[in-house]
Structure formats: C-alpha cells, structure tokens
Model the fold of this input.
Amino acid sequence: MSEKVLYFKSWLASKYINLLGDNSYDFKSILIIKMDEIGDLVTALPVFYNLYQLYPDAKQTLVCKSFNTIFFKHLDYIDCVNDFKEVTENDYDLIIDLRGTVETLHYALAKKPKLRLDRGSVRLKNKFSGGQKNEIDTNIEVIQPLLREHVIWSNKIVTGNDEHQKVADYLQEEGIRKYVILHLGARDEARRWPIDRYAEIITHINKTYSLSCLLVGGPDDKMLNDTCLALVKSKLNLNVVGEFNLLEYAALCEKAALFIGNESGPLHIAAAQNTPTIALFGPGVKDVFYPKNDTSIIHHYFLARKHKEQTVANSTIFSIKVSEVMESVGKVLKE
Done:
C-alpha cells in the first residue's frame, strides 16, 4: 500500500473513531506508535513532553524500533515496546499514530479508543494547504486538538549524570577541552558530502582554531571516518565510533562547539541538544528536516525537476563548496 493511500485510510479511521471522541477526557492510558528511524523519533520528542504536561498521571506506551528505546531511559512515564504484537490485546484511552502500518490502523478500528490522533490526517491536510511542514511542527500538529496555552516545542533529549560523566572521563583521558563533531555518513550515498571535502574542513579547523575534530557515527561509518582522517595531517582528531551510545552521544553534543554533517540521525540529535550545526543537504525536501534551533546554518541546493529522485550521479549535495562551509564555520566559531 502506498504512503498516500495509507494516509487517506488513516484519516478515515480517525474520523470514524472520533465521531463520539472526547478530547477533554482525562486520559490515563496512551499508546503512541512511532516505528521510525533515529532522526524521525528525535523530532517527535515534543509529543511525549506535551502529553506528560497535559496528563501527568497517564502511562504512555511507545511502540518503537529497539535502537530508539534508549532515548527514554530517563523518562519514567514512558514504557517502550519494540514489537507491536505485545500491545494488541490491550485497550488504551488515547492512540496517537505517528508512523504506523495497516496493522496498527486495523488495531485502532477494532479497539475504538476514546480518541485517535494520527500523522496521516495531518499530512493529508497539509498536502492540500501549503505543503509538508518541518517534522517538529507536523508532530505537534498531530496532537493539536489536545493542546492548551503552553506548548513545549523543544525536542531536547534528556540526558543524565551517567552520560555526562562518561563524556567527561573520555575527554579528560584524551586531553580534549573544546571540539567540533563531524558526521560523514548517511544511509543514502546521494546524501553524503565527499570525504575529501570533509578532510579540507577538518584541516581548516585544526589550523585556524586549534580544535580537535571528533568523527562520529555507527559501525558502518568507522571505515569512512578512518579514510577521511588518513587525508588529514594533524593528529588532533579522533574517530570515536563505538565509544558512545546514543544517549552518551547526545551528552557529547551538549559540550561541542559545533556539529557539521549530512542529513542524518546524528544531525538531529545535535540540533536537539542546541549544538550549533552546519547541516549539508542533498535530495531532502526544503524545510522538512531542517534543524529548528537558532544556531543552525543550512546548505541546500535544489534541482528544478525531480529533486527528491536524486541519485549519486546528480545529487545536489556535491554543489556545496568547501569555501562556503568554511565561511559558515567562521560564522559559528568567530575567527
């Protein structure tokens, strides 16, 4: 089933369920469905924070991918489930479908909660009234019927003493005080800025600001980082793949002078922690996944036609020049 058809069916399901719905009800059990990637989950965090503010006594159950569970370590009002089948026998007062499937749609119709809110309805409405919005705005709009005067827009990840201590110990051991984080990877190669250009940026940061560069990412990025650092003479820099889990990485971002990277999960985590970011985009839709903090600089070029269908052969990410990224680095680090 295509995404557009699923959105339409989701809209119909919510209309049917909510005929007798009551958004003033004091919900005690809330099911949120967000079977998505890291960056998508991070942009949805305001939903959980607002729900807690509205219904502090309610238990939130989140169905998410296993690697995203860690983001809720310090939020004791949320239970994470990684297999939707674990909740199918349960009843919930409120269901919020932020990224579901046909299965989750049928579940809602069978259980008929007191209210169902869904991303599909919002995306369908926005398609006919101005286009797709920034992901944080879209997620907030899903729960708009519940919101009151004070809305929490921040999607800052909650980190704890353990994460900050791990980062502090690592930095002390390596003799690093001030640093820049870079993420070179992306699942889609059309979203990857060339590593030789990143090497030029790292060399510039080393020489001009005497700062270390920490190259982050998942296991698939380790070789990519090593290849890049082999092009850099300075030994100030480190490939830190494998050193930190996602929550520790969020704590690492909080202390960073700057983040530079492609559109990816690490970018969204850095932006959530209010780290100054220089974001490099290729095929992405304008505005939708842009960081929303006040200290972000976006580099993004567009094709006149079929922009979203870019491949490595014609990706606009290759239009981003080293000189313009260096200029952005200067604006953030204040030469």
